[in-house]
Amino acid sequence: MNVHTVDLELMGAAGVVAAYVIPSSDGLIVVDCGPGSTLPNLYVGVSKLGFRQDDIRHLLLTHIHLDHAGGAGRVARDTGATVYVHRHGSSHLLRPERLLESATRIYGAMMEPLWGAFEPVPEPQLQILEGTEMLRIGGLEVNAVYTPGHAIHHIAYAVDGHVFSGDVGGVRLPGSSYVVAPTPPPDIDFPAWRDSLRQLRDLEPRVLYPTHFGAHPDVAPHLEQLERSLDGLEALSLEVMRRGGGRDEIARGIGQQARSEIGDAALEQRYALSTPYEMAADGLIRYWTKKRPDALI
């Protein structure tokens, strides 16, 4: 089995958002198409691999956040591909109005340049998953595994020892060994995320493919560092909130940790694009106020 990494070059930045392309006997499988704004880069990448745009027959979505799935409706219309998604995210792909309203409140004037258009997926092309399926696609067995913690609609996909981990497998960009847990609102759940890490380990991956970014064969140390990131973010945000601090202080703490670990200003800026510190702080605050208010007393 061959796995090709296509750099989607979000906002012109290399090595931040990837789509993974897997040739099969039933056309191309793509894992996470990225946002509408980067679809031209996806199609150029497919062409450079020697395939046509309409060779894309299956689109596996790890979750519906815009940097992973924003272009899914357009891909479905352009190629006729089947789109696979967890049931908790399916309604937003069919009727994206609420998702777009929420995202527009967060991104404001940057919504269009960052993410481009988000079109609904035609219902006949949507295959809804529970995250317990063994899919058979073009001679390959694709194990869909429900992995919440980052998002309640998150699925990891395992294919012959290759595990496509979306965001539940953390963010780790080319040129760095630094792994960080991305914690945007609204679904962050630390216990669920740790359970999902156990599920990833149980899959015994030979190579891990987070959407941010690339193939990582050193799976055990990668997941160990991700677990330390979860521990650190949990402790930082709880300590700040218990003494009355808020978003700005948590975001500063996340940024300081990143700069200390990465040690390269340009690379650190790419990390900040893949998991913005203020948004990460918002997700942590929501976790404590909505899921664990008892811990703040």
- What is the CATH superfamily? Ribonuclease Z/Hydroxyacylglutathione hydrolase-like
Question: Could you tell me how far the N terminus lies from the C terminus, measured between alpha carbons in angstroms?
Answer: 52 Å
Strand order of the largest sheet: 1-2-3-4-5-6
CATH first level? Alpha Beta
Counted beta strands: 11
- For the record, the CATH architecture stands as 4-Layer Sandwich
Spell out the helices and strands N to C: EEEHEHHEHHHEEEEEHEHHHH
Helix content: 40-55%
Give the overall form: globular
Radius of gyration: 18 Å
The figure for the number of domains is 1
Secondary-structure-based class equals alpha/beta
Largest sheet: 6 strands, mixed
Strand content: 15-25%
Please tag this protein with its features.
11 strands; 297 residues; 11 helices; alpha/beta
